[in-house]
């Protein structure tokens, strides 16, 4: 799954890219005397009860960077890093440039930049905080079919940079990396993309690289139980600790798509795999994109219209004791493999209040019985907890690290 509906739509700012870059909307924040086009001028506040980049509509680009602490980096050094990172991320999100900045930061506005910080289980151990490691941060179990590359998995810290402009994204990544010197070093980095704002005539749910409308049945932020399902609450089994309330667990899976094999299926077979039409994203049982699937419906020959192993039947909350996650993934395309097939797929990112009631049970079922499984390979994996957002003057993770 990837980012999409439920308020997570591309192009919310309107048709700027597709229409005309020259026509700014005049809001021009942080741009000196020139007014920026609307994409550049859009800003997402860094500070708040929750971190930005979770319910924020998916921007056009992401860079995921996992860090490991340098040997000997202690709690005070980690705290100082999180303060430097938070201060700088807040300034970049407003469109300001950090001091002594290079040229790459010039010209563009914040372009909806968000920077989201999360902690891996190993961070707690290395900082002598094993006793405060949240319950939900146990290592993910192995799943059937996993082909995981340890060097591109896990990590003490995860930084998710999202923006509508690739250069703005590079600048943020580079700036944060410089600030980490002496405290943390990059473990792995991955780059992903989605639709650019304005690329479609109206805001739409994203398409993934298999061509499917992806994100339709994400939980909706306006739903009454949304916060309880996605953010750590007061009493949740994985929560409890005050420093974590308003935080969220994120599962990262690098999922390569076997696109040559996928292309070998005809359209009807591809639609059976998911249980939805490719053109509109509507369930195969009829209606529009947002029409609920009729899971009881049968075809003329008596078989289930949404097949027993269709991806949406295997993964839907109603067949997983309510297990819910907010999918906000990005596509990737990193060239070609030795056999000539594309090294492309989905940087799956799923946010939830507790992975044991979200990703884990659903993936356990998908890995065994999903019609999509023959066409995908899980190649990297990580589980991290994003602390709540911080107020101005504070930093992300302060209640844990101070
Ligand atoms: C739904 C694609 C992996 C969980 C969907 C949909 C598509 C899709 C096209 C239907 C539209 C929508 O509601 O978003 C994919 C692809 C994957 C993948 C291409 C891998 C490359 C996963 C994984 C999980 C997952 C690993 C979780 C472990 C879900 C859930 C839904 C969904 C919960 C919504 C089901 C419903 O309530 O209708 N996915 N998905 N997906 N997917 Fe995936």
Automatic annotation (TrEMBL):
Pfam family, one: Dyp_perox_N
Top-level taxon of origin: Bacteria
Molecular function terms, GO-annotated: ferrochelatase activity; heme binding; metal ion binding; peroxidase activity
Cofactor(s) named in the record: heme b
Keyword presence, NAD: no
Keyword Cell cycle assigned: no
Dyp-type peroxidase N-terminal domain: residues covered: 51-193
SUPFAM superfamilies reported for this sequence: Dimeric alpha+beta barrel
PANTHER family: DEFERROCHELATASE, DEFERROCHELATASE/PEROXIDASE
Record function comment: Involved in the recovery of exogenous heme iron. Extracts iron from heme while preserving the protoporphyrin ring intact.
Protein name, as recorded: Deferrochelatase
Species of provenance: Yinghuangia soli
Lineage, broadest ranks: Bacteria, Bacillati, Actinomycetota, Actinomycetes, Kitasatosporales
